Amino acid sequence: MEIVHTIKDLQTGLSALRAQNKTVGLVPTMGALHAGHASLVRRCVSENGVAVVSVFVNPTQFNDKNDLVKYPRTLEADCRLLEDCGAAFVFAPSVEEMYPGPDTRQFNYAPLDTVMEGAFRPGHFNGVCQIVSKLFDAVKPDYAYFGEKDFQQLAVIREMVRQMKYPLEVVGCPIVREADGLALSSRNARLSVEERKIALKISQTLFESRTFATSHSVAETQMFVEKAIAATPGLCLEYFELVDGNTLQKIANWEDTSYAVGCITVFCGEVRLIDNIKYKE
Ligand code: PAF
Fold first, then answer.
1. Are residues 97 and 192 in the same domain?
2. What are the two backbone dihedrals, phi and then psi, of residue 201, each rounded to the nearest 5 degrees?
3. CB 3.0-4.6 Å disulfide test: which of 54, 100, 143, 228 passes with 205?
4. In this structure, are 63 and 161 located in the same domain?
5. What was the pLDDT predicted at 70?
6. How many domains does the chain have?
7. Is residue 181 part of a domain?
8. From ligand 1's centre to the CA of 213, what distance in Å?
9. What dihedral do alpha carbons 178, 170, 108, 91 form, nearest 10°?
10. pLDDT (0 to 100) of residue 100
């Protein structure tokens, strides 16, 4: 496995392999890798001739500067995990390498990027699109892998790829959960032992709501989730929305769509956790 820090070194390394007609897969990450990332990387390795993993904490997607400062940076441990997964390249650029000057590009995929996370984290998806487009331009992957835990991010990136006509396929990969159900996230490392127990209520509620939804309306299911989270000391609901999984628009009835997804964001103490569940697909 090669660890490279510049676009030039990455492209030099990739060009020989591309000449051998190997497909290039990319897994963009911000590091602090866990088993969820490992599953993306293993899939990328198994489906491509070359797997590139980028590790870059992208400043432009943090609307809360405190969150950026606190974001865990664990490149050495990340590289050990990536070597184990069979990645060929780790691309770990500096901020100056990715942003030699201000990036003034504006990406607008409304309403996909204005609802839910887009409403609560203004500018977040613009930053995500800035860095992901730069990574696509640098790596020129045939396939790019993203986790479904960031459900809205996946929808926004698919739309960017469609509108900008990137010649690549976006591969969405299922959420990886702890044995007890908590969705894996780099942020889980910031939970205290007590908070970790409390956070479990998020996935539990989503799973219970799926059963509840089979005999209740959308509005009742919405209320079921809101009440369960509100009744849990230590959790504070930011939003729970039942949406069409393609348009991300709210649904009023289960019959409105064949693809119904519930997206949730909850603060557990100071840690902002997101999760989602499919009711119909
Ligand atoms: O999902 C993430 O970790 C980030 O948003 C991504 C896609 C790597 C862009 O920085």
1. no
2. -60, -25
3. 228
4. yes
5. 86
6. 2
7. no
8. 31
9. 80
10. 98
Q: Is the CB of 156 under 6 A from ligand 1?
A: no
Q: For tokens 């019959």, name the residue.
A: 255
CB atoms within 10 A of CB 254: 17
Which residues does the chain have with pLDDT short of 70? Answer: none
User: Can you tell me which atom of ligand 1 is nearest the CA of 147?
Assistant: 1
Any ligand 1 atom below 6 A from CB of 117: no
Last-in-domain residue among 130, 150, 173: 173
Write the CATH number for 106: 3.40.50.620
The C-alpha atoms of residue 145 and residue 187 are separated, in whole angstroms, by 20
Residue 58 Cβ < 6 Å to ligand 1: yes
* Distance separating alpha carbons of residues 278 and 259, to the nearest angstrom: 8
E-assigned strands of 200-258? 235-244
Q: Supply the pLDDT for residue 40.
A: 98
The CATH number covering residue 230 comes to 3.30.1300.10
Q: Which residues are catalytic?
A: 37
Separation between Cα atoms, residue 35 and residue 188, nearest integer Å: 12
Contacts of 123 (CB under 8 A, 6+ apart): 60, 61, 63
Are both 138 and 242 inside the same structural domain? no
Range of the domain at 270: 186-275
Residue 208: is it exposed, middle or buried by C-beta count within 10 angstroms (0-12/13-18/19+)? middle
Q: Would you say 247 and 178 are in contact if contact means Cβ atoms under 8 Å apart?
A: no
Residue 128's alpha-carbon distances to 28, 97, 124, 160, 234, in angstroms, are: 11, 16, 6, 11, 29
Spacing, Cα 61 to ligand 1 middle (Å):
9
Do 111 and 11 fall within a single domain?
yes
Residue partners of 230: CB distance under 8 A and separation at least 6: 237
Measured in degrees and rounded to the nearest 5, phi and psi for residue 169 equal -110, 130
